[in-house]
Specification:
The protein is mostly helical. The chain has two domains: 237 residues, no CATH class; 169 residues, abc type-2 transporter like fold, CATH 3.40.1710. Helices cover 66% and strands 5% of the residues. A five-stranded mixed sheet has the order 2-1-3-4-5, sandwiched between helices. β1, α3 and β2 form a beta-alpha-beta unit. α1 crosses α11, α2 runs antiparallel to α9 and α12 runs parallel beside α16. The relative contact order is 0.13.
């Protein structure tokens, strides 16, 4: 066993030296992920689209008739979004932190008292958005503002509710001594006139609208903290897990370096087989499993080296991993997974051109479905479903879990298990086919 290990190590060292001598291959393995990381970091949050499918939680802590009406309005438009209404505030924030939700919306107590009434103080909404989904943050805000506008229209049609609100406002003004008497009397007269309007109004027509209404704030939106904290204030604090844009772009950029490693070693294996190098190794004699193990070890070491290099660069740019110990199993599981994928890719064709073309085609597809190129929320639901069997998705998720999502070991178990399982199956399948071809 020791002899086999030494032989595999020698073969891996040989492959690593060949990689270092091939400047073009080294650029794709090292240079490309750095460029992608800087590019993704620069444009993080720049995507805007009205075709997004968003998973959003709504927590109604007010449970008033108007808060329930607001939830109903949100759930109707746009219908393509997935609205979850059975979570508590803590559950919704944790799901948002884990990446299961794009956003969590909390309707605090007292929301329904002033919601949709323009002449009273705007109600407060509490919103938490996944920091990696900055592209969707504007969409969430737009959805909320549109829903508040519809709620205001509904409330205007409810004459009983408006009269009660006007009466309450008049009573408050009459007892408010902070305002000057002339100003208070003028406001009271205006509100009474507005109330008389509702007394005389028999029905509301959507066709009779003023050309331009007064400027007022429908709702005041405050940001909620989704970081794991033992104690937080009632409203939370600004998001603090994401220190730099590199926190978001690091996993995506690293994936491209990993895919480059897998493709490079797959092509080199085909090249050595075509040139007769593998035949000479068999004559040495070396058993096919030892040769495959040497190639896999070289790929594994290269992937770990790429992730480490990107991690060091990211930390130099301000990235500070929230779960540094989780990075170790994340790196090992990711490297093992894509080493197995490399072994499968090497069996695709007989020439370097065919393997390289097929490999990069597969890489692009995996990156698209796994979130390496396009935010997952912008993909149709059927494409998002396919992403759950994409190793790129799980690799990005576990790296994010260590960098800023603050995954617990229990939360990290699923992506680690998926990556390890894919690596075992792919390495066994690819190794079996390669042994038959050697």
């Amino acid at each position: 066993m020791i002899r086999v290990w030494r032989t595999a190590t020698t073969l891996a060292t040989k492959d690593l030296r060949l990689l270092m001598r091939d400047r073009l291959a080294l650029f794709f393995v090292v240079g490309i992920p750095i460029l992608y990381g800087l590019f993704f970091g620069a444009i993080s949050g720049a995507f805007q689209s009205g075709d997004a499918s968003l998973a959003i939680a709504i927590v109604d802590e007010d449970q008033s008739p108007w808060s329930k009406r607001f939830v109903e309005i949100l759930k109707k438009e746009p219908e393509k979004n997935e609205w979850r209404t059975s979570m508590t505030r803590r559950e919704a924030l944790d799901a948002c932190r884990r990446g299961d939700l794009v956003a969590a919306i909390v309707l605090p107590r007292g929301f329904g008292e002033n919601a949709g009434i323009f002449f009273q103080e705007a109600p407060t909404l509490l919103v938490a958005v996944d920091p990696s989904r900055n592209a969707e943050k504007g969409l969430v805000t737009g959805i909320l503002m549109q829903a508040m506008g519809k709620l205001a229209a509904d409330r205007l049609r409810d004459q009983t509710s408006m009269k009660q609100s006007l009466d309450e406002s008049i009573r408050r003004l009459q007892s408010d001594t902070s305002m000057s008497l002339p100003s208070r009397l003028a406001l009271i007269a205006a509100l009474k006139s507005f109330r008389n309007f509702f007394d005389q109004l028999q029905q509301t027509s959507d066709e009779n609208q003023t050309e331009q209404g007064p400027d007022f704030e429908f709702v005041h939106i405050e940001q909620l903290e989704i970081a794991r904290r033992e104690k937080t204030d009632a409203l939370g604090s600004p998001l603090s897990n994401v220190q730099t844009a590199w926190d978001i772009s690091f996993p995506q950029a690293t994936i491209w370096g990993i895919l480059g490693c897998a493709t490079t070693f797959a092509v080199s294996l085909v090249r050595e087989r075509r040139q007769g190098s593998l035949l000479r190794l068999q004559v040495a004699p070396l058993r096919p499993p030892t040769i495959v193990a040497g190639k896999a070890l070289a790929c594994f070491v290269s992937v770990v080296a790429v992730i480490t290099m990107m991690l060091v660069l990211g930390m130099a740019l301000g990235m500070r991993p929230r779960r540094p110990l989780l990075l170790i199993p994340a790196m090992l599981a990711t490297a093992f997974c894509f080493t197995g994928i490399m072994a499968c890719i090497a069996t695709i064709g007989k020439s370097e051109e065919s393997v390289s073309g097929a490999a990069w085609g597969a890489n692009i597809v995996m990156a698209m479905f796994g979130g390496g190129m396009i935010p997952l929320a912008f993909l149709p639901s059927w494409m998002q479903g396919i992403g759950y069997v994409d190793p790129v998705r799980w690799a990005i998720l576990i790296l994010e879990g260590a960098i800023w999502r603050e995954f617990t070991w229990g939360e990290a178990a699923v992506p680690l298990a998926v990556l390890s399982s894919v690596g075992i199956v792919a390495l066994a399948l690819g190794g079996t086919i390669l042994r038959r071809k050697l």
